[in-house]
Structures are given as structure tokens and as C-alpha cells.
Fold this protein.
Amino acid sequence: MASVQDLLRPSIKALKAYSSARDEFQEETSDMVFLDANENPFNNGINRYPDPYQNEVKAILSDIKEVSKSNILLGNGSDEVLDLIVRAFCEPNQDNVIILPPTYGMYEVLANLNAVGIKKVLLTETFQPETDQILEAADAHSKILFLCSPNNPSGNSFIDTDVEVLLKKFEGIVVIDEAYIDFSSKDSWLQRLDEFPNLIITQTLSKAYGMAGIRLGICYASTEIISVLNTIKPPYNINVLTQNKAAELLKQTDLVSNEIDAILIERSQLISDLKQINYISKIYPTDTNFVLVKVDDATQRYNQLIKKGVVVRNRTTQPLCENCLRLTVGTSVENETLLTALKSLQ
Ligand SMILES: *Cc1c(COP(=O)(O)O)cnc(C)c1O
């Protein structure tokens, strides 16, 4: 297995990070006078630059997730984290990433944006990874394998033993995107981070934690990988408002777990109600806060629903998702509105 240092782009290995004022002097004690960053001195709560390493938020996450702060990097949404990972490991016009459609669209966008090649290996009919085909598709320039588990848009989690085979046999970085892990009946791979030096796990506050608006993505990896990503991230990538709000809401652990419980109850109710709709031919198993369903004509049903004021996601153009709609689980009132609309369609 190649080492992390071998996998990094040569220019990234040689990089010296921009040193911000707050990098050079970090011990913020209240009796210090800060005249080093050309800030406006009049306090309005946001006149100072944010903590570049988000120590307060990381300390809370470290408690909740039982992982050291030095294994955590935060980004402006997971999308920024995923972009940093691509830029750290993939040389433009030379390296490639492996993705497993149908999956989250950003992996492909980020690869294209960075002029990085894409190898696609379709999931099986039950949306599981084809481990042999994936390992066969990999070449010496395949630096990253993106596994989205639970997967968007299918909703299922990948089988643990398949993921483990890929972690052991893929000769590059394996990113497990766990955006939906808090809805899942399965454990996070975070418990096993120490076992796999090539493993990067991403999570987000955008889904279960109810903070899509503040843009906070989380990356867990070895201290070696985290320190490289820290070097290349924009110095002040998480703003003061986001850090404060995240710290405030993350402390309310009961609130989030109650909301997750409520969403899971709604999900079961929604699934049993969807069985009454005669043009829904399949309801796929889900480990997330959404349900993928197959209908007779997804584009027609999608447009009809919009006329009734209900917006769902039409996934019909995705491989293996012909005539599929992705339905997010809402409040009981919202789900009732969806059901009423679905029942009224001819
Ligand atoms: C929603 C989602 C994300 C979240 O991205 P953010 O930038 O953190 O909001 C990441 N991965 C997957 C698979 C998602 O569905």
C-alpha cells in the first residue's frame, strides 16, 4: 500500500501555508491588545477574524464523536472538504478518481473542476459496490475512491465487508461520505479510523443536525492527512457566525437526537403510506432521511407534483434510477401534503 506521502501531489508536499495573523499569534487572552490584523477595533461581535482552526467547535465535536481534535478538519460545507481532498491528492490532467454511480453529483463536478479524470463503476442493481470491478478499474493514477454510504440518491448503506475489502485493497485514498450517517442503523466508520491510514470520512451539519444554512462540513482522518489539508485550506474558511451557531446548537444534543427520532418515525409512516399509491412500483430500502421510489413516469409525476406545490427530486436520468423520484422526509404535515398530492394524481 502506498503511503500518504507517496499519494500526495508533489507541489502539495512542498507547500508552505499562508501564515495569517492569527496563525502567528493564537493565544487570545482578554487582556491582550490585538493590533496585528488590521481589523476595525470597535466590537460588534464580528469585527475580528475567526479562529482559523475552530477550536471551540472541534472540542465539542471531539466529545460527541469521541475522536481527537487533531483528527478533525472543518470546511465550508462538505463540498469544500471534498474539494480540498481532490486538490491534495490529484495532479490535474494526470490522476483520476473512482466514483460509483448513481451517487452524489459533487464528486464528478469537483473532479471536472480540478481537471482530474473520472472512472465510473456502476453500483449493482441493489446499489452495492462491485468490489472486483472497482479494483480492476483502478490504475496507478487512481488516487481517490469515493464511497457514499448511506448512498445518495439510493438511500442504502454499503455492506461493511465490501467496504473493508476496498479499504484494504484500493491503493489510494478511500473517502467515505457519511452525510446521512446519523439516520443510519449502521455504525460510522469513525470507530475504525485508526485501522486504515488511507481512510477519510466526511460528515456534515447540513442534514440530521439541521444546519444546512451555516455551511459546515466535517472531515475525519489521520493526523498526517489532516495536517496537509490544514496547510491548503483557506485560512479563515469557517466564519465567526457559523462557528458560534454550530457551537451553540451542537451543545443541545437532546434536540438533535429528538429530531432524528421524529424523522425516523415519519419515515416509517411515509413508507407505509406510499405503498397505497398504485403507480409507485418500488420503494427502495433507506438508511437516510429520504426515500427513493420508482413510479410509472417520473418526469410526468414530478411536474404534476410541482403544480400541487410539492417539490421532490427527479432522479430519472441517473443510472439505475429510471423513473425514480427522491422524496425527503418532512414534518408530518408536509408528508401528509405529499401523500394527498400523490393520491390526487391521475
Ligand atoms: C447533502 C450531502 C452532502 C452535504 O454537503 P454540504 O456541503 O455539507 O451541505 C454531502 N454528501 C452527500 C452525499 C450529500 O447528500
Notes: The radius of gyration is 22 Å. The longest strand covers residues 142-148. The chain has two domains: 4-251, 254-344. The chain has a mean pLDDT of 96.
